[in-house]
Amino acid sequence: MTLDQLLMLTTVIDLGNVQAASQKLNKTQPAISKGLKQLETQLQINILDRSEYRLKLTPEGKQVYSHAKRILAETDILQQVTTHLSQGNESEVSIAIDGAFDSAQLTPIFAKIQNKFPHTSLIIRQEYLTGAFNRLINDEVDIAISLKESALIKRQPLDYLYLNVQSLITVANPNILRRHTNLTSVEQLKSEYLIMLQDSGSLTKGFEFGVLDGQRKYYVNDFATKKQLIVNDVGWGKLPEYMMQTELDNGNLVIITPEGNENRIDIEYYAIKKKILGPIGTYLWQTLAKSFG
After folding, report:
1. pLDDT tens-digit map of 187-243
2. How far apart are CA 279 and CA 76, in angstroms?
3. What is the separation of C-alpha 115 from the centre of its chain, rounded to a whole number of angstroms?
4. How far apart are CA 289 and CA 212, in angstroms?
5. pLDDT one-digit tens code per residue, 136-154
6. pTM greater than 0.85
7. Closest Cα to residue 14, out of 75, 60, 42, 56?
8. What are the start and end residues of each CATH 1.10.10.10 domain in the chain?
9. From CA 268, how far away is CA 284, in angstroms rounded?
10. What CATH topology corresponds to 3-86?
């Protein structure tokens, strides 16, 4: 059984007769008839009902035809993929995105990549704190969307592309203001749980920034969980501004500004790369530049 025989079978059935298939496939009618007979002999079943002018499939032939269509479709995809790769295109491109960055801004870019290069897989990793940058310097991703780790960039030959500024803002459930009617200092919140995000990287290992001694803490590993806990009055902490606008508008969250706490952090985000990218990675980088430039 060959792909050529399967193609002859599906073409004959799709067009209804050997003559039409002969013209489409640029093969003689005897060659097609012989190929179909050989296929039936090899499979030891009757695929075609030849009792009428228009060839029809036998019950067994319907199953063979269905599988043949699938095999030919998969073969066509395989040929496209191998052509794509033989041109030097990557089989996959990976990008790590900091969780405080509004990734909805990237969705149209990813859709463009998918439509233009359907045979390249885009691997998207969401990381937290130094995680995206850490993935990049460890050669685990091609591009990172991260804040500019200035102390480390001096030691790394990196290229970076400015994107925009995103903000982290300290918020809490309104009930916290009922428990602390005159909230002026972060010291007053020691008895409340500070919901802290764990670093998915290793660059802050052993460090906690802006945390008072004796502060009660919960640790989570993503912003969705952190937001859920804060909305439900389990604790307080910083959330990305883009993530909580609805809750601020409907009063489920309030912004708090106690002294002694960095209540708003504006983060400059960059697309960062460490190595020379392949054609698809380069296209992604250039598209980021056009979209945010």
Report:
1. 999 999 999 999 898 776 666 666 777 789 999 999 999 999 999 999 999 999 999
2. 23
3. 14
4. 40
5. 988 999 999 999 875 545 5
6. no
7. 56
8. 3-86
9. 20
10. Arc Repressor Mutant, subunit A (1.10.10)
CATH 3.10.450.50 fits domain 90-293 = no
Q: What is the pLDDT of residues 249-293, one digit of tens each?
A: 999 999 999 998 899 999 999 999 988 888 899 999 999 999 997
- Name the token pair of 230: 């804060």
Q: Distances from the Cα of 163 to the Cαs of 114, 128, 181, 242, 243, in angstroms?
A: 21, 18, 40, 16, 18
CA 192 to chain centre: 36
Cα gap 247→232, rounded to integer Å? 11
d(CA 167, CA 269): 10
* CA 107 – CA 102 distance, rounded (Å): 10
Q: Whats the size of the chain, residue-wise?
A: 293
Residues of CATH 3.40.190.290 domain(s) within the chain?
Answer: 90-293
The rounded distance, in Å, linking the Cα atoms of 277 and 95 is 12
Rounded CA-CA distance 85/1 in Å is 28
Question: Quick check: 180 and 188 in contact, CB under 8 A?
Answer: yes
Single-letter amino acid code for the residue at 250: N
Q: Is the dihedral of CA 153, 156, 160, 166 positive or negative?
A: negative
Tokens of 238: 């910083």
